[in-house]
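Weekly puzzle thread! Below is a chain. First person to post its structure in token form gets bragging rights.
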Amino acid sequence: MPKMRTSFQGLVRLLAKSLYPEPDVFIRELLQNAHDSIQLRRVYDPEPVGEIRINVDEAQRTLSFSDNGTGMDRQDIEEFLSVIGSTGTGSRARELATRDVAVATIGQFGIGLLSAFVVAERIEVYTRKSLALHAWHWVNHGGEDYRLDSLPGDGQPPGTRVVVTLTPDRSAFLDGRLIRQIVRRYADFLPFPILLNGFGPINAIDAPWHQPGWGDPAEREHSLTSFLAQRYTDAPLLVIPIDLPQPRALGGLFVPARYALGGQGSGAVDLFQARMSIRPNDHELLPEWARFVRGVIDCPDLQPTAARDNVMRDAVWHALRAALGEAIVTALLELARCDRPRFLRLCDWHHDAIKGMAVQHPEFGAAVLGQLPFETQQGQLTLADYLARQPVTADGRQALYFFTHEADANQFYALCQASGLLAINAGRPFDEALLRRYAGEHAEQIELKPLDRLDDPALYSHLEAVEQAIYGRLERALERALAERDVQVRAQVRRFQPDSLSAVLLDGRRIAAFDEMERTLEKPFLLDGLAELAGEVRDRLRQQPLSLLLNAAHPLVQRLGDVADPDQPRYRPILAGLYYGALLNARHRLTPVAARRFHGDLQQLLLEHLALWPQANPPGP
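Winning reply:
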């Protein structure tokens, strides 16, 4: 009985690469071999239409893969099939290349066939070359012995049939639904129909970039949108056709129409090489900042690893990565110019991903920052649009007003609107970092004005000395009234517009941090030491007084300023109400303790107010 020979160099390569970690890749490898067999036959005989058949025999526990390709003779079997580590298809293609014959082969026959032993207890190969008088039957059980028999040529059509007898624990691969999924994952774009038990094709055969209409931009976008929507669960919001000349790459990327967190996951592509899937859901090819992008890329210039489950990180790979990044940036900027509403929707849904990556990756930030929107009281504006509406100060610079607690919009929008200024709501993640980067790059033109930490004379007018002395009593009384309620504030009276705003509470970020610590302490179970740490942080925040600006233009503040002794107990609920009103207007959370105290003060005020009314209907006897 003939013996298997060993190509030690090939065997070492197989072991080093840890080939075929996933058992389903044997289907991919056998389909690749069938594809290459058809391509090699077409060099000599272009007439037959290529076809691949998969047949399932559950009773025999077999899967068979048939092609009408070039087939093998005894020499091919002994040189390629029976030498562990040999790459038969690659050797045949290199031989043809020496004669200036280009063949689009993608597999490695001698290596690929071995993948079936991950799931098989026996492999049989029936093969015949076109016009050959004999066919051949090769059988191997995974050991060094194999059997090779000659068969009559008229009983075997040209091509190759590989029959895989599965081990009992791998019988799941007899399931037709699973086979269809694997074929769609790995071989959807093979240029030949794949039939399952005579039905099909079960592969798409052609993607949009393989079709005649790909050259027309409108048809290309329409077909690509439809294709991506069917292939992925997320509908595309922005589709990016890929047609690169160098390195040659075709395909389509898209930004999904769904909310995405920038800190979760990364951009992913289904990576193909000459129509065959190499790496589904690859997270490395796209630039790191492109976490909001998905798609399909087919690049025949990439060099697969021996296992064909990844590609070499060579110059071609790096060039492709850079080119895809440029294509994504170009598409984003084009969308911003041509379809602003859709671009704003994209930036809203993928805020964390886009702005987060703009912060972490300066080269991406530099490319897109000029088009990114920022929320203002006049809607979403770019920074250039914002500055175009902002007045120039006496020193020739422009103030960029912003606040960093999103809920502060009620008070700061009203303040800036009344003064003819614009405010940016930088309360969403990464907004402030981008504003500071932009201001740093335009330091001669821009001065940052953080509203939640700013007692700005342009917004809050200081009082004359006499008026300040009168209101000083009110400031001290309010601080004492709130201290009784365990709230530390530094109260100051200013005059500002609109006069409907009785008070403005600064330090919104610190209030939010305090609230977060309170929420943490309310949780029933905390890790050891976490409750103590959260309590310590909360207490430190509580000891730092908040800045509360009272408005001397508001009637309530004016009336309280006229009170001879605002320290009287009867005024304390009213004074505390100024703070609670500012807190609620800024949409900060009332802690449970603050809510109870506010509720008690409000009940007292309502009772006192009701007592001042004459009883319209006195109770009867």
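Puzzle host: Confirmed. Bonus trivia for everyone else. Residues 208-345 form a domain with the Ribosomal Protein S5; domain 2 fold (CATH 3.30.230.80).
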